[in-house]
Amino acid sequence: MISRQITENTLYFDVETAGQYPTFDKVLEEDPKLAELWIKRCKWLEKNIDTEESKNPADLWKNRASLHPEFGRVICISFGVFTSTREEKITSFYGDDEMDILNKANKIFENSRKKGFKIGGLNIKNFDVPYIGKRMLINSITPDPLIQAWNKKPWELPYLDLGETFSFGSWGQSFSSLDLISHVLGVPSSKDNLEGSKVHEYYWEREAVEEIKDYCEKDVICTMKCFDRITDL
User: Fold this and answer.
1) SS3 for 202?
2) In what order do the strands lie in the sheet with 118-121?
3) Per-residue buried b or exposed e for 61-77, using 16+ beta carbons within 10 Å of the residue's own CB
4) Which helix (H) or strand (E) element contains residue 14?
């Protein structure tokens, strides 16, 4: 289905994020304007969340702020490429220094672009790429052209997105989770003790950056194995 040449000339990646501050009370204390804007964002969130989920801005901050780059921060980016023996080679940048993570990631994107690589992952077009791009702009970093989407036609974007590939063009199916896709393809799941919804808690309350890094790398490896599973069918 997908050629071996394409999957071998792709940089796979995943990003893990947390809220900019540990709690909404801390936002109120440190950045009242951001808190005001978060309350406005919550009005929109109320229309798009499960009816059983708390609509309190403090609860939504803990559960949802990490998903919004204007209110969140990057704490880990893991990259993967296939070696000549079809093994997964993984590199990660993670920790408290977001600018350092982003600068190092930007260098990886630059090197991959010069090699003519695509970038691959799950839902990278809708989440990972815009999240990283916005955080780079916020941190006064110029995003490498590999992840810049403006002035490009859709077919010019160098993305290999597992969700889109697996959906066969069905918009509603492009949001299948990695857990679901890997399961039906017979690929071992990357989901164990940690899930994306718990990263904010693991970062701010447990300071478990190593566990977050391990989780991020497992997602990249799982995504690569899924692509490997459908390569040259």
Assistant:
1) helix
2) 88-94, 72-82, 10-19, 118-121, 159-161
3) bbbbbbbbbebbbbbbb
4) strand 10-19
Residue 12 burial (CB count, 10 A): 27
Percentage helix, strand, coil, to 5, in the chain? Answer: 50, 15, 30
pTM, 2 dp: 0.94
> Mapping DSSP to helix (H, G, I), strand (E, B) and coil, where does residue 50 land?
coil
Q: Which long-range contacts (CB under 8 A, 24 or more apart) does 109-114 make?
A: 109/11, 109/143, 109/144, 109/146, 109/147, 110/144, 110/146, 112/11, 112/146, 113/144, 113/145, 113/146, 113/158
- Eight-class DSSP state of 188: P
pLDDT one-digit tens code per residue, 125-149: 999 999 999 999 999 999 999 999 8
Neighbouring C-beta atoms of residue 219, cutoff 10 Å: 26
